[in-house]
Amino acid sequence: MTNTHLKDVQVGDALPPLTLPAINRTTLALFAGASGDHNQIHIDTDYARKAGMPDVFAHGMLSMAYLGRLLTQWVDQRQIRNFGVRFTGITHLGHIVTCTGKVTETFAHDGERRARLEIQTTNQYGDTRILGDAVVAL
């Protein structure tokens, strides 16, 4: 988590971006083991090709986990009040994922100051792969 001055957060402020190393087979295998998601489309090239894909590709939840990291480098995880995403594209092997976010609203809820955020992942070509939103306590 950075030393952000959360009391000064305003609409339009950007979260510090998070760029991860290129997706590779090791990352997919480690995530499959850690998450328990051993769906063959993510780890078995032959299976992926039979399904019409050129190769295996990243779990959607891996990219969502990266967005979770984006949030927790900005606020403590105990400050996350809501976090959801919509998958808009496939993250393929070799894609470099960058997570970004911006403040779209600040408001009070039950006496707690909060911020609503738009968050997303893109690959190195600028293609959006996940769109999401989150609410965090400030």
UniProtKB/TrEMBL annotation:
Pfam families with a match to the protein in the record: MaoC_dehydratas (PF01575)
Cited CDD domains: SAV4209_like (cd03453)
Stretches assigned to coiled coil: none
Lineage: superkingdom: Bacteria
MaoC-like domain ranges (all copies): 23-109
Protein name: MaoC family dehydratase
Source organism: Variovorax robiniae
Origin organism lineage: Bacteria, Pseudomonadati, Pseudomonadota, Betaproteobacteria, Burkholderiales
